[in-house]
Amino acid sequence: MMNKVKRNILLFLAILIVMLVISGTAFWAFNQALRAEVNVRYTGTAMIISEKLSKTIRGMEMNARNVFNEVERHLDSPAAVEEALKSKTSLNPDTRGYFAAFRYNYFKEKGMWYEPYVHQLPNGDYKLAQVGSARHDYTKSDWYVQAEKILMNFWSKPYYYYDGTRISGHYCTFVEPILNDKGELACVCGADITLEWISNKLQVIDYEIQRDEQMNMHRLMRVLNFYSVIIDDDGSCIAHPEGKNLAVKDVGVLMNMNKKKGGVANMSIDGEASTIYYVPIDGMDWSLAIVTPQKDIEKPFVYIGIALLLLAFLGSFIIWILCLRLTRHNERVY
Question: Residues with Cβ < 8 Å from 226, sequence gap 6 or more?
């Protein structure tokens, strides 16, 4: 009797081991396939968002160049410059304002600092202001110094401008140096966008994609709830949904971003384990990153793992019972 019990136990263990090996192999295959799917899904989504944002920014650059070209054609007088700035501003209502920051004493009658700035008011109208002064010596600003040095257009680093008016805020500027007929720097033109505008634009794009039919196919128990942020080349987050700020400190990730490479990284954001999928933004020193909670990504692995484990035990038990019955039947026959 004891030998028979031992034999039954050994039979059950053997069947269980076989079932666990089969379930483990199935889970490994599922794990590899799903991780590839997750990477393709979120990296592809990040690339789509980056492309949509880049397309919007390229459109702003094109409109800005129209304004700058108008300024370049009217360097003969301050009044002509101001009229040139005002004539094209309505082309892109997303731009906060346009300015032309002239080199010292370019127009004698305007004094040392002359920086006409046409900016958008909350009601949609535009207002002209002269913002250059000893207090605001724009020639010492990073964007002016860089434009004077490289004589090429570029996007400035994000910065905070304050003058106590509604113009004050966090900005990023598309900058272009303007040369006169002698090939000398006449002024540095700029088109401002606010970081708030970029954040709002990202949230609109996120909303559209999260409700896209293709994005929501094959959820596999996941919520697929993500949000997008823009990260500068120093790892700081310059555009994000409210309360979702983050900073990238991983050296390897920062090196990839500076080399215009994409990738995946795990990090803790506000105490929650998260994964970011990042890609470069064409023509800018920024990267776009999709942030998603790791617990959402891991849901299918947990559920499928538990299901396969239960199936292994259930299958082993059923096969064991069948083997016992078959053995008893054979014993009765013989």
Answer: 42, 45, 206, 210, 290, 291, 292
Q: How far apart are the first and last CA of the chain?
A: 18
CB atoms within 10 A of CB 257: 25
CA 194 – CA 177 distance, rounded (Å): 21
Using CA atoms of 198, 204, 207, 210 in order, give the dihedral in degrees to the nearest 10: -60
Here the tokens at position 79 are 């009044």
Q: Any idea of the CA torsion for 142, 147, 153, 157, to the nearest 10 degrees?
A: -10
Strand partners, 154: 175
Q: What is the pLDDT of residues 162-182, one digit of tens each?
A: 766 666 678 899 999 999 988
Q: Taking the alpha carbons of 61, 65, 71, 75 in that order, is the dihedral positive or negative?
A: positive
pLDDT digits (tens, 9 = 90+) for 48-92: 999 999 988 888 888 899 899 999 999 989 999 998 888 766 656
Instruction: Give every CB contact of residue 61 below 8 A, 6+ residues apart in sequence.
Output: 153, 174, 191
Measure Cα distances from 46 to 14, 43, 52, 53, 227 in Å. 48, 5, 10, 11, 10
Tell me 236's DSSP state: B
Q: Which of 50, 61, 45 is nearest to 201 (CA)?
A: 50
Burial of 279 (0-12, 13-18, 19+ CB in 10 A): buried
CA triple 122-171-284, angle to 5 deg:
130
Distance from C-alpha of 4 to C-alpha of 225, rounded to nearest angstrom: 56
